[in-house]
Design goal:
Elements lengths: L4 H8 L20 E5 L2 E4 L4 E4 L2 H4 L8 H13 L11 H13 L4 E7 L2 H18 L7 E5 L8 H6 L16 E4 L13 H19 L4 E6 L15 H11 L3 E5 L13 H4 L7 E4 L11 E6 H4 L22 H16 L2 H16 L8 E7 L2 E6 L13 H13 L1 E2 L1 E3 L2 E4 L7 H24 L7
Parallel strand pairs: 3-13, 5-6, 5-7, 7-8, 8-9
Antiparallel strand pairs: 1-2, 2-3, 4-10, 9-10, 11-12, 12-15, 14-15
Helix pairs in contact: 3-11, 4-11, 7-8, 12-14, 13-14
Bound molecules: pyridoxal-5'-phosphate.
Length: 460
């Protein structure tokens, strides 16, 4: 039985949430979510809310799946756990085989982890291990992009590039170097698209040259910068960056923690959407549709085949987790993949995703909206209070206002400063997209009226 809302909120104040503001600890009154069904969440007041971000880009198959619950239950009853160090289990083995089959090119092995951060962290540690083994220990530097997000371990947080997340924390600044995000919104007006693409690719090449190719190990990039604000790079960007990487013997990690498992209409987007076969792909979130935590990195046979130096005694990768290849998580992953395929959710994401992108463009009619962008079932509406500002993040209050209005009308959005980021479950229908966009439209209009009333927005 559920506790009354106020009691849960009181107890919840003992839970230190991700990104909690410690000056506010003990004073939060978060919405208590009691139930999920399909694309909807239900709060403790009985309100039905469209789950606009599908949790955190992750409940891809939607909430309340009985067959998923059954698969998890069956595996718990069969075998909840055994050591991944020394034993094999059928779910982890089958899931690894399924991932290898889905991975592009020769990415035929999977290292299973507990979440996206540990997938990225382990992939980066694998790269260090790989270069040390092949006698290039000086090849250590990591290049990533500003506005990228890759996780919350020391190393994955260090490769993340969101300035607002850098408060009061330490990072591996000796190892990690950032280049600008390829953000078409900030392309100078007089610059052609081709020149902009050249500039974005040159940012990477120049950074490799500046640091010294013999010192640079890897480039890490999300296909679409997700929590940086759904930044879709110019066409051809990833392919050109991969070519640059290979030219300088730099590995390429495609961080598909968000973009995989149907979000962009394919199990993996790297090759299907962006025409690249990277050296490593990281994934999590939609991997199990968040029913159970899990992450993974897929790595190419080409790299693994290099671990065959007969002069060296061993090549033990001393990295892993108690829950690597957890049988229950692997069973959930297998069921998730089965549902995505059987229900043609990738196809739905492509078809309904195109409709979603078209419908959401209607928000351009609202004067406070500066940019509407996205691909598949990922979108971002970016607002501006200060016309033409370079750093729109300072307009962060607008996001909170939109969020409050939308939630009152039955939609959860995920305010990221001045941006509303949306990534609904892949089961969403066109009629539900209409509901979502209608509420969002009204929410943004109401937030704009608030800003006009208090004088923070003037240009209408
Ligand atoms: C692209 C990307 N990589 C890695 C992560 C980290 O994943 P997790 O929060 O599961 O550790 C995230 C989380 O949002 C992400 O968006």
């Amino acid at each position: 039985m559920n506790n009354p809302t106020s009691q849960v909120q009181k107890q919840d104040n003992l839970f230190i949430h991700p990104w909690d503001n410690f000056q506010n600890l003990g004073n939060n009154q978060r919405t208590v979510v009691e139930k999920g069904d399909g694309i909807y969440l239900y709060d403790s007041q009985g309100n039905r809310l469209i789950d606009g971000p599908s949790g955190m880009w992750c409940v891809n198959i939607g909430h309340g799946r009985k067959e998923m619950a059954q698969a998890i239950y069956d595996q718990v009853m069969q075998l909840p756990f055994t050591s991944p160090w020394s034993m094999a289990t059928s779910p982890a083995a089958q899931f690894s085989e399924a991932l290898a089959a889905e991975g592009p090119g020769d990415l035929n092995h999977a290292f299973l982890t507990t979440c996206g951060s540990t997938a990225v962290d382990s992939a980066l540690r694998f790269v260090q291990f790989y270069n040390n083994y092949r006698g290039k220990p000086e090849k250590k530097k990591i290049i990533s992009r500003l506005k990228g997000y890759h996780g919350s371990t020391y190393l994955s947080a260090s490769v993340s590039g969101k300035e607002r997340d850098k408060n009061y924390l330490d990072f591996a600044t000796d190892l990690v170097h950032h280049i600008p995000a390829p953000h078409p919104l900030f392309k100078p007006e007089q610059m052609t698209d081709a020149d902009f693409l050249d500039q974005c690719v040159a940012d990477l090449e120049n950074k490799i040259i500046e640091l010294g190719a013999d010192k640079v190990a890897v480039f890490v990039a999300e296909p679409i910068l997700a929590s940086g604000g759904v930044i879709v790079p110019p066409k051809g960007y990833h392919k050109r960056c991969l070519d640059v990487c290979h030219q300088y013997d730099v590995l390429y990690i495609s961080d598909e923690v968000v973009t995989s498992f149907g979000r962009l209409g394919h199990i993996f987007a790297s090759e299907a959407v962006f025409d690249i076969v990277p050296d490593i792909i990281t994934t999590a979130k939609g991997l199990t549709s968040a029913y159970i935590p899990m992450g993974a990195f897929l790595v190419s046979d080409r790299l693994l085949n290099e671990f065959n130096n007969p002069d060296l005694e061993s090549a033990i990768f001393s990295n892993g987790f108690t829950y690597s290849g957890h049988p229950v998580a692997a069973a959930a992953g297998l069921k998730n993949l089965e549902i995505i395929k059987r229900e043609k959710l990738c196809e739905n994401a492509r078809e309904v995703g195109a409709y979603f992108q078209q419908r959401i463009k209607s928000l351009y009619d609202i004067p406070i909206v500066r940019d509407v962008r996205g691909l598949g079932l990922m979108a971002c509406v970016e607002c501006e209070l200060t016309k033409g500002a370079d750093d729109l993040e300072m307009d962060y209050e607008i996001g909170e206002r939109i969020d409050q209005h939308c939630q009152a009308m039955g939609l959860i959005v995920r305010p990221l400063a001045n941006m509303c980021v949306l990534s609904p479950p892949l089961i969403i229908t066109k009629a539900q997209v209409d509901d979502l966009v209608d509420i969002l439209y009204k929410g943004v209009e109401l937030a704009m009226q608030d800003c006009i009333a208090d004088g923070t927005f003037k240009s209408v």
